[in-house]
Every structure is written in structure tokens, then in C-alpha cells.
Amino acid sequence: MALTDIWFLLIAVLWTGYFVLDGFDFGVGMLLPFVGRTETGPSETNRRVAINTIGPVWDGNEVWLLVAGGATFAAFPEWYASLFSGFYLALLLILVALIIRGVAFEFRGKIDSDRWRRNWDVAIVVGSAVPALLWGVAFANIVQGVPLDARHEFTGSLLTLLNPYALLGGLATLSLFALHGAVFLALKTTGDVRARARGLAHRTGLAAILTGGSFLVWTFLAHDRIWTAAPVLVAALALVGAVLMIHRVREGWAFLLTAAAIVGVTVTLFGTLYPDVLPSSTSAANSLNTTNAASTPYTLTIMTWVAVVFTPIVLVYQSLTFWVFRRRIGAGDIPAASGLPVASGR
User: Fold this and answer.
1) Which domain holds residue 220?
2) Residues 6+ apart with CB under 8 A from 25
């Protein structure tokens, strides 16, 4: 296997890890107004329980995005240049949303004011929903192909990216991450938040099955890559299985299945894409692939040794983080003083 193929595979693994890990962060953020309630109205305690489930890990999960972007830049600079110039506005919106979400986590508890916290809660919801939607739109466009000229420069506009297939991809990732977050909340909490999360998992699960299934079928039929049949089937069965496991109150299995569904969707996208990295809808001759978009062999060799040394360290550190914060939390774990800040990643 050539180094270019190895790095295409590694980048696919990095994006898969990012979607699995930050996916439940997005889901928790999007569902905050729904789990942060009681029968009598909004509950600050419930919202703090939900936020504290991801407090120690959310910023560590975003490291996968930084590494995926950095690996793309170093291994496939032509891909990075064309992608980030053509998708500039969409990626800028994602970046702004991620910044707003991070600031909201840190500033939400700084002032003891209901209005202050409500405003930051809106920022958390928006900062979670926008990336969840736009990542699907972006990757659907990457797989479908975008207009590139002979110099591999994007010749379309933002409206070019908002086509039916891409929008369906966005709805698929939005609903899938919402399901993933609901299952994570059910797994990590007790009491009222857990009960509400389980109910939301049923509803978001049906949406994920509908949108995700439609997107996967469209992808498979449009590109006719027979080797993607397996991940498509895995993703579909995992989504159905996750809903069934939630119904049987087996949140651990449900979480593993939603993670498997995200893996299946991501493998389908990268499997459909290979050996291209950014197909051209204008002319196949203008497409970027693992050969004409790659760095020099020397660069790829150095990168490979760096990855061999540091990847295990990062995996061990992040695994320890999840192990340390593995316990369920509930209303009894939240200090009575409402002005105290929620747990952050630091």
C-alpha cells in the first residue's frame, strides 16, 4: 500500500473519530432545551446535569478535528487548498459556531442570572446544530463532486453547495448526532434527565433512520461502489438496533450502536470517494485524487513516523479521561448555588 493510500485511510479514521466523539457533544448541545425541563417548566439543575456530562471531554474531542485538518493540509495540500477555498463560507460558519459553543460552556455560569444563562443556552444550541448540519452538507458535496477548473479551483458559489443531496446529508448528520447525544445522555445521567433523554432517543432515532437511510441509499445508488454495501448495511442495522436497545433500557449497547452507525456512514462516504479526494463535477480530468493532491514521499514518510509515535499517546490520554469521568451524574451531584460554573474541560 502506498503512503498516499495510508494517509487517505488515516484521515478517514481521524474524521470518523471526530464524528463519533464530537457527535455526542453536538447532540447534547442541541437537546439541551428539551432535557433541561421538568413537568412544571425549565430546570436549571437538569441543564447543568446535561452540560456536565460533556464538560470534561468536549474540548478534547475537538482535537480530532484539528488533527484531521492538519493531516489533510500536510498530506494532501492540493485537497486542502481547493476544499478550504471552495467551502470557505460553510467552514467559516462551522468555525464561528464552534467558537460560540466553547465560549458558552465557559461563560454560562459566570453570572447568577437566569437571562444570562438562557442567552448562553441559545448559543450552545446554535453552536451545536450548525456544525452538525453543515458537516453533512460539506461531506455530501465532497463525495458528489463540485465544479473545479483545470487549476483545481472551485468555480461555484455557496448556493452550489446547497443542493438536494447535500441538504439531505446535512439532515442525516443532524439527526444522527442528535440520536447519539440523546443516547449518551441516557447512558451518563440518572433521574429525570435520563428519562427525558430516553424519550428523545426514540424520537430522534426515527428521524435518523429516515434521513440517514435515505442518504445512504442515495449515495450507494448514485455512485455504484459495491464495496460500500457492507458499511451501508452496518449503519442501517446499527440505527435500528440502537432504538431497540434504548427501548430495552440498555443504554451502553445503544451508544455502541449509534457509534457504529456513525462509523458506517463515514466509511461509506470515504469508500465512495476513493481514490478521489475531491471529484470535479465539471470534468473528471480536473478531479483531485490521492496521487495528484499528495505531498512528496519524504513529507509523508516523516508524517508517518510522527503519527506512529504520538497517536498511541493521544489515545491513551483520552481513554483515561473517559475512564475517570465514567460515572453517571444526576441532580444530587449539582451544587445548590445556581451561580456556580458548570464543569469545563480544564
Assistant:
1) 3-324
2) 54, 57, 58, 61, 128, 181
The conformational region for residue 41 under phi > 0 = left, psi -120 to 50 = alpha, else beta, is left
| DSSP for residue 148 | B
pLDDT tens readout for residues 230-258 = 999 999 999 999 999 999 999 999 999 99
pLDDT band at 44 (very low <50, low <70, confident <90, very high): confident
Q: Indicate whether 79 belongs to any domain.
A: yes
Task: Give the span between the Cα atoms of 156 and 159, in whole angstroms.
Answer: 8
Interatomic CA distance for residues 5 and 24, integer angstroms: 29
The grid coordinates of residue 202 equal 426514540
Q: CA-based Rg of the chain, rounded to a whole angstrom? A: 20
Q: What is the pLDDT of residues 252-310, one digit of tens each?
A: 999 999 999 999 999 999 999 999 999 999 988 999 999 999 999 999 999 999 999 98
Domain membership flag for residue 226: yes
Helix, strand, or coil here: 189? Answer: strand
Q: What is the pLDDT of residue 40?
A: 58
Rounded CA-CA distance 93/133 in Å is 11
User: How many other C-beta atoms are found inside a 10 Å radius of the C-beta of residue 310?
Assistant: 11
User: Nearest CA to 3 among 247, 230, 299, 249?
Assistant: 299
337 pLDDT above the threshold of 50: no
pTM of the model: 0.92
- Relative to beta strand 276-278, strand 41-42 is unpaired
- Does a structural domain hold residue 124? yes
Evaluate whether residue 340 is within a structural domain. Answer: no
Cis peptide bond upstream of 297, omega within 30:
no
